[in-house]
Amino acid sequence: MKLPADFYLREDPCIISKELLGKTLFSRVDDQLCCGIIVETEAYMGPVDRGSHAWNLKRTPRNEIMYSTGGVVYMYICYGIHDMLNVVTGPAETPHAVLIRAVEPVSGIEIMRERRGVINNDFRLCQGPGALAKAFGLQKIHNGLSLQHDTIWIEEGAEVEESRIVTASRVGLNIEEPYKSIPWRYYIKGNKFVSKPRT
DNA sequence: GCGACGATCATCT
DNA sequence: GATGATCGTCGCG
C-alpha cells in the first residue's frame, strides 16, 4: 500500500524525514521494477534554511515544484552529472522537501547493477543520492510526478525504533553556520547502505 | 582505508 | 562567469 497523501502534507519535514526511514521506495522505469528500504534522508526547511533551494522564498523555474502541495517529486541535476531525488512536503506554497540519500536494495538488484555499471559491492549500489537515482532509473524528467502514481512511489515498511535512528548534520553543504551544522540528517544506525560523508 | 582531484553542465547572477 | 544537496578513480604504501 502506498503511503497516503496526507503523510506528506504535515508541516515539519524533519518528522517526515525521520518517518521515511524504513519505508520502501519503488520505481517502475522502462518497465523495470525496483524497490528498496530507505535508510538515509535529509530535511530541507524551505524559506528558513540556507541550504535549501527555496531559501528566503527564492522561486525559480527549477525549484517551482517545491511550492506545490506535498506528495510530489522534486528532481534536479547536481554538479552537472547527478540527478537528485527529493520528496516535496507540506501544504501548497510551503517549499519544504526531503532528500532521499540512500536505500538498501530489495528487488530489481540486477537492473540496478546494470544501470550503475561495474561496482565491486552491492552496499554501494544506492549509497548516496546520485547513486540511488541512477540505480532506480530516476532523472530530472521525473520532476513533478506524484507519489500516488505508478512510476515513483513509497510504501509502508518495517518499523524503525527510535533508538536506531541517528540524527546528524547534513552532507555536502558548503554554507555558513549555523545551517551547516543543524542536525537535519537522519539515518539508521549501523546500516551498511548509509552513505559516508567525505571531508 | 583515506585524501585529492577532475568530470561536466543546468542554473542563476 | 561561477557554482554545486556528488561520485569514481588514482596514488599511497
Task: Explain how this protein is built.
The structure is a single chain. With 199 residues, the chain is α+β, with helices and mostly antiparallel strands. It has one domain (5-188): 3-methyladenine DNA Glycosylase, Chain A (Roll), CATH 3.10.300. Helices cover 12% and strands 29% of the residues. It has three helices and eight strands. The protein has helices at residues 13-20, 109-116, 129-135; strands at 24-29, 32-44, 73-78, 82-89, 96-107, 152-155, 165-168, 185-188. Strands 1, 2, 3, 4, 5, 6, 7 and 8 form an eight-stranded antiparallel beta sheet that branches. β3 and β4 (82-89) form a beta hairpin. The longest helix has 8 residues, at 13-20. It is globular, with a radius of gyration of 15 Å. The termini are far apart. The model has no long low-confidence stretch (mean pLDDT 97).
